[in-house]
Amino acid sequence: MINRLFNFLKNHRGYLYLSLIVIFFLFLFFVQAIQTSKNRTVIPSVPSIISITPTIKPTVNLNDFSDQAKNEIIFNAAWDKLQRDYPWYKYLPIVQKDYVIVYDFDKKSFRIRITNKNASESLKTNIINEAINSLVKIGVDMTKFTYYIIN
Fold first, then answer.
1. Residue-range definition of the domain harbouring residue 21
2. CA distance 144 to 108
3. Which of 13, 87, 129, 148 lies 20 to 30 A from 116 at CA?
């Protein structure tokens, strides 16, 4: 088969046919390229009439900054006092499988909620002792604070 093709190409007419086939395929290629370039969507650019820069200049009221600075100073002072009076507060709430501990500022007491609804009385006692030990571990002086239990 290769020999037959080679013999065909040796003939002058074979070269002519081969050249015509190559030109035909090149023509198809260029026509296809032109058609795909016509079908592409062009994203229009932003017209130069539209201004990108803002036209309204923000005004700064120094009194607003002064009020904010005062409020931040008050907040920081309160936060520092809270950290001094209750250094263990940053470790709350304590969430465990059987209980949750939070501090109630209204009652000035710890609230221990037992989350195990089916706990027997002896298990509840163990859970309460474990909760108290957790409070001692974070630095709570249990002689100065009270606690109450919620089932």
1. 2-35
2. 10
3. 87
Q: What is the mean pLDDT of residues 14-40?
A: 71
Is residue 8 one of the residues assigned to a domain?
A: yes
Is 46 part of any domain?
A: no
Residue 134 placed within a domain: yes
Q: Which residues face 150 on adjacent strands?
A: 113
Q: Is residue 56 part of a domain?
A: no
Q: Which residue has the tokens 């002064």?
A: 66
Q: At a CB cut-off of 8 Å and minimum separation 6, what does 117 contact?
A: 151
Quote the tokens at residue 95: 């969430």
Q: What are the DSSP E strand ranges found in 65-123?
A: 94-95, 99-104, 109-114
Amino acid identity, residue 106? Answer: D
Is the pLDDT at 12 greater than 60, yes or no? no
